[in-house]
Amino acid sequence: MKLFYSPGACSLGIHIILEEIGKPYDAEKVSLQAPPPERALTSVNPKSKVPTLVRDDGSVLTEFGAIAFWLARTHAGAKLLPADAEHEARVLEAMDYVVGTLHMQGFSRLFRPSNFAPSESEAAAVKAKGRDLAEKGFAVMNHALEGRDYVAGDFSVADAALFYVESWAGRMGIALPANCTAHFERMKARPAVARVLAKEASA
Q1: I need a labelling partner for 150 at 20 to 30 A (CA). Which of 25, 36, 92, 182 fits?
Q2: In this structure, how many other beta carbons lie within 10 angstroms of the beta carbon of residue 101?
Q3: What's the whole-model pTM score?
């Protein structure tokens, strides 16, 4: 398998999942600074975005949730998804919320306000809305983590998703609530996460 990633981007979560699985994979750094049509990644994934996973048969899988689910389902020994339907649904629920709301609605407004504002004069209002959405999202996840080390009890793909947005919080000066802070530190202590952070920092 080969992962196309950009250091510190949402692909960080998939990078962690691959490292947790513990099987050989390749990782290719992608620069997101170039316009999408000029990125080498575009020939592999027309969406020109990370994460992009090229599987062993040459087929390409895109979108965080789809890649995370496929990796977990095809590497059951890594125990990245609960065995029962109820807890699996909770993992997918949390992952969808993190990616769809915290990332796409909250942080996307903070990182790229021009995608949401018709004019530059509205950028500050867009960023303020993004911060509000992110803070409310972390409050939701803080409640989900109450009395738990991980989102669904045991470590799962949802924790890899939550970790990447938690890492963005510090970058944007957003204070994490207590349970999310504990989760973030717990994640950084996992050997697989530490390895990925070191790899991406040196890339």
Answers
A1: 25
A2: 18
A3: 0.96
